[in-house]
Structure formats: C-alpha cells, structure tokens
UniProtKB/TrEMBL annotation:
This is Probable periplasmic serine endoprotease DegP-like. Residues 1-31 form the signal peptide. One of its GO terms (biological process) is proteolysis. The active site is at residues 127, 157, 232. InterPro entries: PDZ, PDZ_sf, Pept_S1C_Do, Peptidase_S1_PA, Peptidase_S1C.
C-alpha cells in the first residue's frame, strides 16, 4: 500500500508537469499526439477476411488403430480414491491397454484451402492426412464432403486432395509471389486452431529463408501471426488475398502460439502442388552430386576469397554428371543463373528445375572459375541409384603395410590386408588411416581409423609417401591448413581441413 501511494504521488507530479508543457506548446503537442498513418498497415482486414473465409476449410481425418497389450499398451493412471477424474479416465482408457486385440478410431483435425473451385482441389499438409483411413473436408457454410487423396510429398510436407462439389459452389484462392514478401509486410492466417473452426489472425513477416531442419528444402517464411495446433495446412495470405505460404510448424514449449510460426513459401509449394495434380507424385530435377558446406578453412585451402557455394564431395554413379562434367572438389557457386550462397541453396534450386533441362553450372575448380553445361536427371530415379551406390569389401590377404605418421594420423598403404581389416570397399583407393592420436588436429575434425585419404589439396594420393610430400609442399607454400578428401569404408566422400601449425 505504501509503495502504491508513493507511485500515485509521482504520477500526479508527472501529469501536472505534462499539462503545463502542453499549455505552453499547444501546437507542438497537438502534432505529436496525432497517430501516424501508415499506408501499408491495414486499419481493418474485415473485408479481406470476409472474401477469403469461404476458401479455407477444416480437414478431419480418422484412422482405425488396433488395440494392444503389454509394452505398447496405454496404461491406466493410478488415481486417488474418490478422485473427480475417475469416471473420465475410466471412459477414456477402457479401450486402451485393456482392450485385447480390439481397435479404436483415432481422429485428428487440420486446415486446408481450395485452389480450384471447378475441380474441387484442396491443398493441405501431408502430416495432417498421413495414414488416414478417411478424410473429410468441412466448409465454412457447414457442408462436409468426402475427400480423395491425389498425392503427397513428404519432403515439403504437402498433400493435394480432391472433393466432388456435387452442385456445391466452392470459393477458391490462388498462389501469390512469395519472393516479393519483405520482412515487416502484413500477413493474415486463417485456419482451424484447436478445432475451433475458421479463425483469422494477423501479423507480419518476421523473417525469411528459415531452415528449421525439417526437410531438405527448408526455406520457411516466419511470421508472428498466431498459428496453433490445427492451423497446419492452412493458408498465409498477403494483403491482396493471395496465398504466399502454407502454415506448417510452430516453435512453442507449451503447444500454443508464442509468435513463432513457419509457412512453406508459395514459390516452393506451387510447383509441388502442380506436379502432384498432374502426376500424383513429384518429378524433381537431379544433379547427381554429394555436397557439403564450404567453411572458411576449406575456402582458404581452395584459394577462394570467401566461403560460398556448395562443395562437391562425391559423384553418384550413373548420375547426370558421372561423365566428368563436374568432379569431386569442385565448388558450385551458381546454378542456372541463381547464386548458390550456401550448401542448402543448391538442392532446392535443382529440385525446382524441370527434369531433362540443360542448365549452366558455374564451378570453381582448382582456384579457377568455369561454366559447364549439365542436363538434369530425375531425383526420384537418382535416389535409387544413390542407395545402390555401395560395394562389398574384399576379404583377401595381402602384403605388409608401409606406414607413416602425419598430422596426428598413422597412415598406411591400402591393400587387401587393410581392406579386410577395416572393411573397406574394393573400389575405394588412396591411403588408409590406421590410427588417430587423441587430442590431435585430425581427432578434432572427427577423422576415424578406417577412413581413406584420396586427395590432398585436390591432388590424388596412393601411397603414404604421397601424403607426406603433399603436406610438406603445402607448408613450403605457407598454407595453414591442408584440405583432405576422405572416403568412408563404403566410398562416401567428404572434405575436411586440418591445421598444419
């Protein structure tokens, strides 16, 4: 109470002083008191929302799950005698854990939106309808229609559904250009949070190009428009009523919105949706390379002024560039006219390119920039090749190993004996690492015995002496790091840099 009275007195003094100032400078005070007008900040989105609500739908799914007992069963919690929750839990758990061989119907809710009113095409998230036995689309006017699954894409978490309007007039929305969205632009989300039905929330674009490690093509729009459970699959609109994102994820310790939501950008989603509509599956471009980031150390080792692009760590056998067009050790800095600033940029721009398209790829090879022409394959076919791109190790015996030690590594000749000892595939060539000293520079980089040094500073090595000579030459050139290409036991390639000081 005492602190409150002191605070009240202070407020009275401040009010009196402010009043005196206003009287003395009425013109200035009036101007300062007027609210500023922002042309792009909507005073109301009622008209916009009214025209869009009909295109946003609720997706309800159901799945029959077989009952079980034992470790997989859901246990009944132990409640105090006479607990008011006893009846509730008895009903809830009567078919769980104690239901031998029975089954139960599991239901879930999400959101979606109509993009083609005539065909009855609805877009949502794949995780909203995954494993569903039955899918229904609920419209804002109370109509419910059964939905057929046209196609899904787990890599971008997108699904396309089809309903038969049966004389029911649908309202559709279209994709906008998400590339034009800037941080600070107003956006509006409409969806089905917590099963409440059509709910409108407003916010801004908080960030762009977010990578939350949910898939290979992460490029999310971040927004502070409230997005909660049940909003998944719903649209994120710009102020022109165009869909510039599909709401798909949130960061929240409580499960509710804390102002950090993520939407799949329309630029990525539109192409996937079109392919699913046409083919029922995706048909992405494929380059046929394994890549890794270009670190500062690697950039220095390659003679690059700054770390950028995607470093090619390996070539997939039978892929589009298995003809030597692109080689391990090349750094891809531009693809089909698009700059590759980071490693994650390359898979996305390649996947967005049509299968069979001939594109220009700018690479840095041994310090020199050049442009090569590549005809893209199909990713879905390439994934089968990549998984089969392995060889079985040889188990034959050979001659004694010539050994040496360098940069905290013990190295030796790669022959039948070492192949058998470490299980190294027959088609892997180079110098085998037989041991790695604890707390050495090599150990810090995660190098393991059984890995094979195939190149140093983009020069191939086949004997321990080659390794020693290359390291000595780099030191004479004043290099601080050595760039090594390492092969795993099965032939997977990666680049590492090791300090030589």
């Amino acid at each position: 109470m005492k602190s409150y009275s002191i605070l009240s007195a202070a407020r009275k003094t401040l009010v009196a002083a402010t009043a005196a100032l206003v009287v003395g400078t009425s013109a200035v005070s009036f101007a300062a008191a007027q609210p500023q007008s922002y042309a792009n900040g909507p005073a109301s989105v009622a008209d916009l929302a009214e025209g869009l609500l009909g295109a946003v739908v609720n997706i309800s799914t159901s799945q029959i799950v077989k009952g079980s007992e034992g470790p997989g069963a859901v246990p009944m919690p132990q409640l105090p005698e006479g607990s008011p929750f006893q009846d509730f839990f008895n009903d809830f758990f009567k078919d769980k854990g104690g239901n031998k061989g029975g089954s139960q119907k599991v239901q879930s809710l999400g959101s979606g939106f109509v993009i083609d009113a005539n065909e009855g095409i609805v877009v949502t998230n794949n995780h909203v309808i995954a494993d569903a036995d039955d899918i229904e689309v609920n419209f804002s006017d109370g109509v419910t229609l059964k939905a057929k699954l046209i196609g899904t894409d787990t890599k971008t978490d997108i699904a396309v559904l089809k309903v038969d309007p049966k004389g029911h007039k649908l309202t559709a929305v279209k994709f906008g250009d998400s590339n034009k969205m800037r941080i600070g632009d107003w956006v509006m989300a409409i969806g089905n949070p917590f099963g409440l039905g059509g709910t409108v929330t407003l916010g801004i674009v908080s960030a762009r190009n977010r990578d939350i490690n949910s898939g290979p093509y992460d490029d999310f729009i971040q927004t502070d428009a409230a997005i909660n459970r049940g909003n998944s699959g719903g649209p994120l609109f710009n102020m022109n009523g165009e869909v510039i994102g599909i709401n798909t994820a949130i960061i929240s310790p409580s499960g509710g919105s804390i102002g950090i939501g993520f939407s799949i950008p329309a630029q990525l989603a539109a192409g996937v949706v079109e392919q699913l509509r046409q083919f029922g599956e995706t048909r992405r471009g494929w380059l046929g390379v394994r890549i890794q980031p270009v670190t500062s150390d690697i950039a220095e080792s390659l003679g690059m002024k700054e770390p950028k692009g995607a470093l090619v760590a390996g070539i997939i056998k039978g892929g589009p560039v298995d003809n030597g067009t692109i080689q391990a050790g090349d750094v891809i800095t531009k693809f089909d006219g698009k700059d590759i600033a980071e490693t994650r940029d390359l898979p996305r721009v390649v996947a967005e390119s049509p299968v069979g398209k001939a594109v220009d790829v700018v690479i840095v090879r041994k310090g020199k920039e050049q442009t090569v022409k590549v005809t893209l394959g199909r990713l879905e076919d390439g994934e089968k090749l990549a998984s089969a791109d392995e060889s079985k190790p040889s188990d034959s015996k050979g001659a004694p190993v010539a050994a040496a030690s360098v940069l905290g590594m013990s190295i030796g000749e790669l022959n039948d004996e070492t192949r058998s000892k470490f299980g190294i595939a027959a088609d892997v060539s180079g110098v085998v690492i037989t041991d790695v000293a604890k707390d050495s520079a090599a150990s810090e980089r995660g190098i393991q015995p059984g890995e094979v040094i195939t190149e140093i500073a983009q020069e191939s090595v086949s004997k321990p002496k080659d390794v020693m000579d290359r390291i000595a030459a780099l030191k004479q050139q004043g290099r601080k790091n050595a760039l090594l290409m390492l092969a795993s036991k099965t032939g997977e390639l990666r680049f590492v840099t090791i300090r030589m000081d």
